[in-house]
Amino acid sequence: MSGIIKELPTISLNNIYKSYGTGEGKVEALKDINLEIAKGEFLALCGPSGSGKSTLLNVLSGIDKPTAGTVMFLKKLLNTMPEEQLSVIRGKHLGFIFQFFNLMPVLNAFDNVFFPLVLNGHFTKKEAKERALHFLDSVGLASFMDRKPGQLSGGQQQRVAIARALAHEPQVVIADEPTGNLDLATGEAILDLMLKINQETRTTFIISTHSSQLKERANRVVEIKDGELVNASEA
Ligand SMILES: Nc1ncnc2c1ncn2[C@@H]1O[C@H](COP(=O)(O)OP(=O)(O)O)[C@@H](O)[C@H]1O
Ligand SMILES: [Mg+2]
User: Which of 149, 113, 211 is closest to 221 using CA atoms?
Assistant: First the structure.
C-alpha cells in the first residue's frame, strides 16, 4: 500500500457474519470477516462463484445488513442505521458499477448520468447537466451522449455506468465484476480507466473480479472462499 497515507480506514468490517435462510436450507454466506479498507485503495476482491463476493459488497455498502458484526463506513456505524439514513449515505458517498451495466434502456447516455444526479437531491438541474457532460467526456463518450444503451458496445455501456457512478464524486466506488461481461481488451481498457480515476482523485475502489489483469494491478488482493477471507496480501 505504498503511497497511501495512514488515516482512519474508510471502511472497517469487524467479525461480520451473514446467513440466508434457516434450518436445513441455511447458507452461511460470510463467516467472521475482518477487513479494513483505506482511503484511496484499489482493492480486488477475488473468489470463485458463490464464495460471497456480492454479499460482502452489499454488506459493506449498507445495501444488506449482516447477521452479526459491525460495519463502519466513514466513522459511522452502518448496521444499525435506519434505511432512510443509509440511502442518504449511499447517495452521497458511494458509486456502484455492475457486471451487466444496469443502465436504463430507454434513456440515452446523457440521461442515464443526468437523471440519477437530479434525483440525488444535491444538485440543481444546471449542475447535473454540467456534471453529466463532464463525466461522460472524461470516460471518452463525448460524441455518444445521444445514444441509448442498445446502440452502444458493452465497453461503451460500462463507460456510461462508470460516469454515472462517479458523477456525484463519491468517496468509494463499489464494482461487482465490472469486466465480467467484457472481452479481454475491453476489460483492460475499463480497468485502465478505473485505475486512472483512482490515481487522479484518490477515490477508493472495491472491485470483485475473476480477472487476473485486475488482480495484478490492484493495490491489494483479498481472497474469499466459502464466505471466509483466506488470504489478504499487499502488493
Ligand atoms: N438472497 C439470497 N438468498 C439465499 N442465498 C443467497 C442469497 N444471496 C446469496 N446467497 C448465497 O450466498 C452465497 C454467496 O453468494 P454471493 O455473495 O452471490 O457469491 P459471489 O458473488 O461470490 O458469486 C452463495 O451460496 C449464494 O447461493
Ligand atoms: Mg456475485
Answer: 211
Q: Is residue 1 part of a domain?
A: no
Ligand number nearest CA of 223 is 1
Whether the CB-CB separation of 100 and 181 falls below 8 Å is answered with yes
2-13 burial by CB neighbour count: b if 16+ within 10 A, else e?
eeeeeeebbbbb
Which ligand 1 atom is at minimum distance from the Cα of 224? 22
Domain that holds residue 154: 11-234
Q: pLDDT (tens digit, 9 = 90+) per residue, 145-168?
A: 999 999 999 999 999 999 999 999
Distance 39 CA to ligand 1 centre (A): 27
Domain membership flag for residue 147: yes
Whether 1 has a pLDDT exceeding 70, the answer reads no
Cα-to-centroid distance, 124 and ligand 2 (Å): 35
Q: What is the pTM (predicted TM-score) of this model?
A: 0.93
In a domain, 4, yes or no: no
Q: What is the CATH number of the domain that holds 94?
A: 3.40.50.300
Classify residue 2: in a domain, yes or no: no
